[in-house]
């Protein structure tokens, strides 16, 4: 059974592609208490599992979908990014530099300590920082290495595996640190600060704006020379009724 599935997926890698997507969304709905894997993490784990069957995709397909992924990320977050630069650009740039440098240094130390190769180390950097763009950069750098084709391919294949494994850790650890540890370090009440921010964003009030209106009114402008100027609503309704009966 497994051998037949393996041969089918190897012969038709497009089936493996959509199988990973389906399993990924299925895994993403699995809840561990109040925590859910989510579609992204579920798809990464499904890719690791299906990848154990030895299924490979052409490099052109990998590059195409990776570029589409980067385009979608930029299309979604681009406007917010530039609006943020106008308001707190210097602080955001400094924070980005600190996170990037610290993440790179820690990943380098871990890779040296455990003897990871360049591909696995790049996957650790991308997954721990949840930065998918690192995958494309690392693959491009590995492709330019002066090494045999088989060695470059092995290094490139290690990147998504390490990324999928460390991505879940990166997401959960970051959420736990920002919600539990960081407020204690900064000595702030996170719930109270969130309430203050909500009040500021609502214009100084905690009352939620409601789109529903109790009454809906319409107004119409009448031409000055119209015969309906000065008439009452009853006259207009009576005229409409008479016209309706005349057509009947």
Task: Give descriptors for this structure.
248 residues, mainly alpha, two-stranded antiparallel sheet, 9 helices, 74% helix, 2% strand
Question: How would you portray this structure in words?
Answer:
By secondary structure, the protein is an all-alpha fold. The chain folds into 2 domains: 1-57, no CATH class; 61-215, no CATH class. Helix content is 74%, strand content 2%. It has a two-stranded antiparallel sheet with strand order 1-2. Strand 1 and strand 2 (35-36) form a beta hairpin. Helix 3 (38-51) packs antiparallel against helix 7, helix 5 runs parallel beside helix 7 and helix 6 (133-143) packs antiparallel against helix 7 (149-186). The longest helix is centred in the middle third of the chain and has 56 residues, at 59-114. The protein is elongated. The N and C termini lie far apart (75 Å).
Q: What is the gist of this entry?
A:
The chain is mostly helical and 248 residues long. It is 74% helix and 2% strand.
What order do the strands of the largest sheet run in, or round the barrel if closed? 1-2
Shape field: elongated
Number of strands: 2
Structural class: mainly alpha
Biggest sheet descriptor: 2 strands, antiparallel
Secondary-structure element order, N to C: HHEEHHHHHHH
Distance between the termini: 75 Å
Low-confidence stretches: none
Rg result = 30 Å
Overall mean pLDDT: 78
Beta-strand content: under 5%
* Count of discrete domains: 2
User: Fraction of residues in helices?
Assistant: over 70%
- Count of DSSP H/I helices: 9
């Amino acid at each position: 059974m497994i051998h037949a599935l393996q041969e089918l997926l190897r012969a038709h890698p497009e089936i493996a592609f959509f199988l990973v997507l389906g399993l990924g969304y299925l895994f993403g709905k699995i809840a561990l208490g109040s925590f859910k894997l989510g579609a992204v993490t579920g798809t990464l784990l499904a890719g690791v599992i299906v990848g154990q069957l030895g299924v490979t995709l052409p490099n052109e397909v990998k590059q195409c979908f990776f570029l589409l992924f980067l385009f979608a990320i930029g299309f979604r977050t681009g406007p917010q990014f530039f609006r943020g630069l106008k308001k707190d650009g210097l602080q955001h740039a400094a924070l980005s530099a600190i996170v990037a440098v610290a993440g790179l240094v820690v990943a380098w130390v871990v890779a040296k300590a455990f003897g990871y190769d360049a591909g696995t180390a790049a996957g650790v950097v991308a997954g721990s920082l949840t930065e998918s763009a690192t995958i494309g950069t690392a693959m491009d750098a590995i492709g330019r290495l002066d090494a045999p084709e088989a060695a470059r391919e092995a290094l490139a294949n290690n990147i998504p595996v390490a990324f999928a494994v460390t991505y879940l850790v990166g997401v959960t650890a970051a959420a736990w640190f920002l919600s539990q540890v960081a407020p204690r370090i900064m000595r702030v009440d996170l719930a109270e600060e969130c309430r203050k921010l909500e009040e500021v964003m609502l214009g100084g009030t905690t009352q939620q704006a409601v789109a529903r209106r109790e009454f809906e009114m319409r107004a119409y402008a009448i031409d000055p020379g119209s015969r309906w100027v000065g008439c009452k609503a009853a006259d207009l309704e009576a005229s409409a009724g008479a016209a309706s009966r005349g057509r009947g």
